[in-house]
């Protein structure tokens, strides 16, 4: 089951989506016909991250593959799509909503073992290039082709960190991002009051955090002083150091990535709960 937090999703589509409402309102031209009002000329693409719910397959609607989350992350003029196996990048144009077009670019080349994931990936790669319009209804974001048929249905992902809890999947050990059997014991929680807390695998810790856009600062980390096994203690030190090194964050569905000034991944996490 996917974890989603409604209070955090407000604002994912920003003011750009207001143009959709305007475009849907008729205007009496005086001759009995309805004319379309002017669209917002400088509107940009919807902003945020969206989790795939279903896609159009050869025989109809296909639910997204459970346990292999596919995510679409939209910036003003670019997109990043995690297919559940590989990552596809490209450009997006939604300056005349509800029209929207995707121009796929580079994609990673990891082999997909699950046939269902492979089918999902192929649908995204082929289908995004055929998208011409989008619709927003509540928290549902739908992409359509020129015939008006639904190609993809997404639901809004997290918009912020406040009130979320995470399980660590990888830590920068100073040489590379590593995930081990010990990594899963690490945790991180962001409270609404600007405090951060978690477990380093042996000791618990607390501190403070601030965010501004996609920037983040985690500071003033203090830990308990329990004696730990050497390997656990080493990972704990690497973890807290990585947290304080992070300067930017990326939300994509139920995953969180913390990076440093040079873009190197410091910590990767998966959503565990609401704090």
Write the layout of secondary structure elements.
Layout: H1 18-24, E1 27-28, E2 34-35, E3 48-57, E4 60-63, E5 71-74, E6 78-82, E7 87-93, E8 101-107, H2 115-128, E9 133-137, E10 140-144, E11 150-156, E12 164-172, E13 177-178, E14 187-190, E15 195-199, E16 204-212, E17 215-223, H3 230-245, E18 248-252, E19 255-259, E20 265-274
Antiparallel strand pairs: 1-2, 3-4, 3-5, 3-11, 5-6, 6-7, 7-8, 9-10, 10-11, 12-13, 12-14, 12-20, 14-15, 15-16, 16-17, 18-19, 19-20
Structure notes:
The chain has 275 residues and is mainly beta. The chain has two domains: 6-156, Beta Barrel (Lipocalin); 164-274, Lipocalin (Beta Barrel), CATH 2.40.128.270. It is 13% helix and 42% strand. It has three helices and 20 strands. The chain has helices spanning 18-24, 115-128, 230-245, and strands at 27-28, 34-35, 48-57, 60-63, 71-74, 78-82, 87-93, 101-107, 133-137, 140-144, 150-156, 164-172, 177-178, 187-190, 195-199, 204-212, 215-223, 248-252, 255-259, 265-274. Strands 3, 4, 5, 6, 7, 8, 9, 10 and 11 form a nine-stranded antiparallel beta sheet that branches. A hairpin with a 2-residue loop joins strand 18 and strand 19 (255-259). It is elongated and about 65 Å long. The model is unreliable at 1-44 (pLDDT under 50).
């Amino acid at each position: 089951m996917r974890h989603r937090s409604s209070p955090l999703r407000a604002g994912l589509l920003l003011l750009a989506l207001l143009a959709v409402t305007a475009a849907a309102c008729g205007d009496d031209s005086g001759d009995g016909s309805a004319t379309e009002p002017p669209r917002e000329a400088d509107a940009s693409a919807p902003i945020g991250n969206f989790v795939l719910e279903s896609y159009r397959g050869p025989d109809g609607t296909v639910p997204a593959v459970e346990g292999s989350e596919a995510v679409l992350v939209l910036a003003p003029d670019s997109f990043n799509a995690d297919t559940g196996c590989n990552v596809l990048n490209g450009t997006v144009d939604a300056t005349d909503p509800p029209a929207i077009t995707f121009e796929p670019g580079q994609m990673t080349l990891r082999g997909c073992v699950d046939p269902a994931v492979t089918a999902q990936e192929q649908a995204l790669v082929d289908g995004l290039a055929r998208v011409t319009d989008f619709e927003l209804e509540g928290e549902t974001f739908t992409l359509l082709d020129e015939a008006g048929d639904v190609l993809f249905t997404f639901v809004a992902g997290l918009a912020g960190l406040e009130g979320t809890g995470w399980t660590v999947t990888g830590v920068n050990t100073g040489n590379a991002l590593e995930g081990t059997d010990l990594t899963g014991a690490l945790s991180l929680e962001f409270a609404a009051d600007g405090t951060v807390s978690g477990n380093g695998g042996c000791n618990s810790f607390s501190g403070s955090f601030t965010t501004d856009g996609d920037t983040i600062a985690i500071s003033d980390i203090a830990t308990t002083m329990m004696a730990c096994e050497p390997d656990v203690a080493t990972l704990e030190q690497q973890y807290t150091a990585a947290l304080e090194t992070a300067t930017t964050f990326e939300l994509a569905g139920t995953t969180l990535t913390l990076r440093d000034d040079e873009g190197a991944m410091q910590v990767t996490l998966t959503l565990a709960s609401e704090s």
